[in-house]
Amino acid sequence: MRMPRRALLISAACTSAVLAVGIPSPASAIDGPDTRRVQVVMVNFTDSSFKDPAKSKAALQKAYFGKADSLTSYYNEVSNGAATFKPAADGDEGVVGPIDLPIPGAGCDNDKIHSETQKALEQQGIGWDDFEHMSIVFPNDTAKCGYGGLGSVGGGNTWVPVSGDGGSADLTVLVHEFGHNFGYQHQMRYACTGIDLATCKDTQTTSHKTPMGGGTNVAGLSAPELIHAKWLSLKEAPKVTKSQTYRLRSLYGKGGGVRALDLPIGDDRLVVEMRSASGTLDKGLEGIHAYRVPQGHYDASSMVDITPKTDHWAGSDTPSGDALAAGKSLTDKAHKVEVRVLKSEGGEATVAVSLNGVPAPASARQDVAPQSEGAAPAASSDGKSDEDLAATGGDSGTTMSIAAGGVVFLALGGAFVIKSMRSRRRSASRHAR
């Protein structure tokens, strides 16, 4: 589904959340590792506090910066070392507090929580130049905020409610919210009644192919998301300009080769990827998947599902019943495009792409030289001072009072609440680097 660029989303089906400001695009692997400093801040409220702060602090240090099963290890793996996180201060274990805020947690005034935390950090000599990400962790027992996490889209802030009795942050929540910081929207699903894109319609369901689409941290990011962050080279995800047959390797598999294809369908793009279990990622996820990218916004892709009546969810956090099987095709007759899967097994696939109605040759290319135009650009901030807030993890039919103004569209039963909003923020140069 094409998501609004400035919207609030609350979902009963997912487990985390989002907000929006400008932040520089992630660096490509060619430029060297993009090391981002994270300041984790534990805060208490006047009506609630951490019951075992030492236990929570130790657990949070592992969740954010641990060598395995952490926010840092996840993004190290999905970016192939192009992006990583570290504690904001050298020699610091990355978590400060708990800091006592002079406000109650009840009501979940996120703007107030943010401003009071910022004020408290400045009193300790910690300013915006000291980090790229600030993650506020607070006890939710009394506050009862209706989301699993909150993060600024393209910004540097996250809000993470936890149990106050020593509880830590859920890894899927952290991966999801920091994904919003990298600029990702929620990844939705197109349901198709046939093999042609003209039969596809937006749905209120998520892709489950990425933590940004309702999947857990078991799933890696999808190919469009990797392209957005410039974590796939043009050799790994070539822009297809003529009919050709390709051999694809698993998106996170070892070795080189083509891992995804990026082809034109009018003003939009169609990205085709090969997924298979590798390392800690994509367990239970196997096969070819396709995504529609609206007008080059790789951060807002939607998965194309030509088998919508199949039960994709049973027994797996990363269902693959919607993969394009060998012998199956996906077409866009309006633009004379066809993608046919010739073979798909063992973490490899052969895919024939026909453009402009020209049949693809039978033999598969082993690799592809980079195109001359450079990597696909990430969607940039429009420079406005509005913030986007997308929250997930609330109860079905429950809304959140986060900011005044806007129009609310409500759909019950695990769907989304969408609310346009405007909110004060600091300039992008101060808010995030």
TrEMBL record:
UniProt KW Magnesium keyword: no
Signal peptide location: 1-29
Keywords attached to this entry: Membrane, Signal, Transmembrane, Transmembrane helix
Protein origin, superkingdom: Bacteria
Domain Peptidase M11 gametolysin: residue ranges: 38-191
Protein's name according to its UniProt entry: Peptidase M11 gametolysin domain-containing protein
Residue ranges of the TM segments: 400-418
Region (Disordered): 362-393
